[in-house]
Sequence to fold (149 residues):
Amino acid sequence: MAAAKGALRIYLDTSVLLAMICPEPDTQGVLSWYRQSQQATLVSTPWIRTELSSALGIKRRTQQLSDAEVPLAWHAGQRILQTTVCEALVSADFDAAADFCAEHALKLRGPDALHLAAARRLGCTEIATLDELMSVAAVRLGLVALALK
Fold:
Protein backbone atom coordinates (compact mmCIF):
# COMPACT_ATOMS: atom_id res chain seq x y z
CA MET A 1 0.00 0.00 0.00
CA ALA A 2 1.33 3.43 -0.93
CA ALA A 3 1.74 6.11 1.67
CA ALA A 4 -0.86 8.87 1.69
CA LYS A 5 0.33 11.89 -0.27
CA GLY A 6 -2.29 14.58 -0.02
CA ALA A 7 -5.79 15.32 1.14
CA LEU A 8 -7.21 14.89 -2.38
CA ARG A 9 -8.35 11.28 -2.81
CA ILE A 10 -9.00 10.14 -6.37
CA TYR A 11 -10.57 6.75 -7.03
CA LEU A 12 -8.86 4.90 -9.87
CA ASP A 13 -11.17 3.03 -12.24
CA THR A 14 -9.98 0.04 -14.26
CA SER A 15 -10.57 1.85 -17.55
CA VAL A 16 -7.86 4.36 -16.66
CA LEU A 17 -5.44 1.70 -15.43
CA LEU A 18 -5.94 -0.25 -18.65
CA ALA A 19 -5.21 2.84 -20.74
CA MET A 20 -1.99 3.33 -18.76
CA ILE A 21 -0.64 -0.10 -19.66
CA CYS A 22 -2.16 -0.88 -23.08
CA PRO A 23 -2.44 1.19 -26.23
CA GLU A 24 -5.86 2.85 -26.11
CA PRO A 25 -7.21 5.98 -27.82
CA ASP A 26 -6.93 7.89 -24.52
CA THR A 27 -3.53 6.58 -23.39
CA GLN A 28 -1.59 9.82 -23.90
CA GLY A 29 -4.15 11.92 -22.01
CA VAL A 30 -4.30 9.41 -19.18
CA LEU A 31 -0.52 9.23 -18.85
CA SER A 32 -0.30 13.01 -18.81
CA TRP A 33 -2.93 13.15 -16.08
CA TYR A 34 -1.13 10.45 -14.07
CA ARG A 35 2.16 12.35 -14.16
CA GLN A 36 0.36 15.47 -12.93
CA SER A 37 -1.60 13.66 -10.20
CA GLN A 38 1.38 12.72 -8.06
CA GLN A 39 0.31 15.02 -5.20
CA ALA A 40 -3.07 13.31 -4.86
CA THR A 41 -3.74 10.00 -3.16
CA LEU A 42 -4.93 7.45 -5.71
CA VAL A 43 -7.32 4.94 -4.20
CA SER A 44 -8.24 1.48 -5.48
CA THR A 45 -9.83 -1.71 -4.21
CA PRO A 46 -8.91 -5.34 -4.91
CA TRP A 47 -11.78 -5.41 -7.42
CA ILE A 48 -9.57 -3.51 -9.88
CA ARG A 49 -7.28 -6.55 -10.13
CA THR A 50 -10.20 -8.79 -11.12
CA GLU A 51 -11.40 -6.32 -13.73
CA LEU A 52 -7.86 -5.81 -15.05
CA SER A 53 -7.37 -9.55 -15.45
CA SER A 54 -10.70 -9.79 -17.27
CA ALA A 55 -9.86 -6.88 -19.59
CA LEU A 56 -6.46 -8.34 -20.42
CA GLY A 57 -8.09 -11.70 -21.14
CA ILE A 58 -10.51 -10.03 -23.53
CA LYS A 59 -7.65 -8.21 -25.24
CA ARG A 60 -5.87 -11.55 -25.68
CA ARG A 61 -8.94 -13.36 -26.99
CA THR A 62 -9.59 -10.56 -29.47
CA GLN A 63 -5.93 -10.58 -30.51
CA GLN A 64 -5.30 -7.04 -29.33
CA LEU A 65 -2.47 -8.43 -27.17
CA SER A 66 -0.19 -11.41 -27.75
CA ASP A 67 0.54 -14.21 -25.29
CA ALA A 68 3.83 -12.48 -24.48
CA GLU A 69 2.24 -9.04 -23.97
CA VAL A 70 -0.44 -10.08 -21.47
CA PRO A 71 1.91 -10.86 -18.54
CA LEU A 72 3.93 -7.71 -19.28
CA ALA A 73 0.76 -5.62 -19.14
CA TRP A 74 -0.37 -7.41 -15.97
CA HIS A 75 2.93 -6.68 -14.20
CA ALA A 76 2.90 -3.06 -15.39
CA GLY A 77 -0.59 -2.73 -13.93
CA GLN A 78 0.54 -4.24 -10.64
CA ARG A 79 3.41 -1.75 -10.44
CA ILE A 80 1.00 1.13 -10.91
CA LEU A 81 -1.38 -0.31 -8.32
CA GLN A 82 1.47 -0.32 -5.82
CA THR A 83 1.35 3.49 -6.01
CA THR A 84 -2.30 3.49 -4.88
CA VAL A 85 -3.85 3.07 -1.48
CA CYS A 86 -5.69 -0.24 -1.86
CA GLU A 87 -8.69 -0.39 0.46
CA ALA A 88 -10.78 -3.47 1.16
CA LEU A 89 -14.34 -3.75 -0.05
CA VAL A 90 -16.93 -4.28 2.67
CA SER A 91 -20.45 -5.67 2.65
CA ALA A 92 -21.92 -2.15 2.74
CA ASP A 93 -20.22 -1.42 -0.62
CA PHE A 94 -22.17 -4.25 -2.24
CA ASP A 95 -25.40 -3.04 -0.65
CA ALA A 96 -24.82 0.52 -1.87
CA ALA A 97 -23.91 -0.78 -5.34
CA ALA A 98 -27.17 -2.72 -5.46
CA ASP A 99 -29.04 0.44 -4.50
CA PHE A 100 -27.24 2.38 -7.25
CA CYS A 101 -28.15 -0.29 -9.81
CA ALA A 102 -31.77 -0.06 -8.68
CA GLU A 103 -31.71 3.66 -9.53
CA HIS A 104 -32.46 3.05 -13.18
CA ALA A 105 -31.71 6.66 -14.15
CA LEU A 106 -28.05 6.04 -13.21
CA LYS A 107 -27.79 3.30 -15.89
CA LEU A 108 -25.04 1.56 -13.92
CA ARG A 109 -23.73 -1.97 -14.37
CA GLY A 110 -22.87 -3.85 -11.18
CA PRO A 111 -19.07 -3.52 -11.41
CA ASP A 112 -19.23 0.25 -11.99
CA ALA A 113 -21.74 0.66 -9.18
CA LEU A 114 -19.36 -1.22 -6.88
CA HIS A 115 -16.50 1.15 -7.79
CA LEU A 116 -18.69 4.19 -7.09
CA ALA A 117 -19.97 2.81 -3.81
CA ALA A 118 -16.43 2.16 -2.64
CA ALA A 119 -15.24 5.58 -3.81
CA ARG A 120 -17.94 7.32 -1.80
CA ARG A 121 -17.36 5.25 1.34
CA LEU A 122 -13.61 5.79 1.14
CA GLY A 123 -13.93 9.57 1.04
CA CYS A 124 -12.85 10.06 -2.55
CA THR A 125 -14.04 13.33 -4.01
CA GLU A 126 -13.01 12.53 -7.59
CA ILE A 127 -13.03 9.49 -9.82
CA ALA A 128 -10.67 8.83 -12.70
CA THR A 129 -12.61 6.90 -15.34
CA LEU A 130 -12.93 6.76 -19.11
CA ASP A 131 -16.42 5.26 -18.91
CA GLU A 132 -19.00 7.86 -19.97
CA LEU A 133 -21.97 6.28 -18.16
CA MET A 134 -19.92 5.88 -15.01
CA SER A 135 -18.81 9.52 -15.23
CA VAL A 136 -22.41 10.73 -15.49
CA ALA A 137 -23.48 8.52 -12.58
CA ALA A 138 -20.51 9.67 -10.49
CA VAL A 139 -21.55 13.30 -10.89
CA ARG A 140 -25.15 12.45 -9.99
CA LEU A 141 -23.80 10.76 -6.85
CA GLY A 142 -21.77 13.81 -5.83
CA LEU A 143 -18.34 12.91 -7.16
CA VAL A 144 -16.23 14.85 -9.62
CA ALA A 145 -15.60 12.83 -12.77
CA LEU A 146 -12.23 13.79 -14.17
CA ALA A 147 -12.15 14.66 -17.87
CA LEU A 148 -9.34 12.45 -19.11
CA LYS A 149 -10.33 12.17 -22.78
In short: The beta strands are 9-12, 41-44, 85-86, 126-128, 144-145. The chain has a mean pLDDT of 94.
